[in-house]
Amino acid sequence: MPEEPFVEIEHTADLALRVHGRDLPSLFVHAAQGMFHLMRYPPNAEGSVRLTRAVALEALDLETLLVDWLDELLYLSERNAACLERFEITSLDTSSVRAIAQGASPRYPTRSIKAVTFADLAIRQVGEGYETIVTFDV
Length: 138
Prior knowledge:
Elements: E1 6-9, E2 15-21, H1 24-38, E3 49-58, H2 62-79, E4 83-92, E5 96-105, E6 115-116, E7 124-126, E8 129-137
Helix pairs in contact: 1-2
């Protein structure tokens, strides 16, 4: 298992990450952490307040669930002017995820992500963990 939970990889027009996790919950957490890392949030400003949001999603398959998970976090960050930094997966199977996301608001990214895409997306079991590539439309 690689030491880095996510690594930015080159992409011709968009942003992309190779994400690793020892299990599916850690893969989902690392994908979320990587997405917010790519958005390059400045440090917490004075006056920032802690924010906690519950997330509950269902999808037809695991790849769609991952895209929906990241899209929902992107929506929550934009709606609440927040940088989400901590993610606790409370349940996850091949068609649903329940989680708690925490961060600080107001915080604004220096790089915008429009959406999460299905380009090159396939969750694969590798060794004793999981790996995927996530591509973001900028």
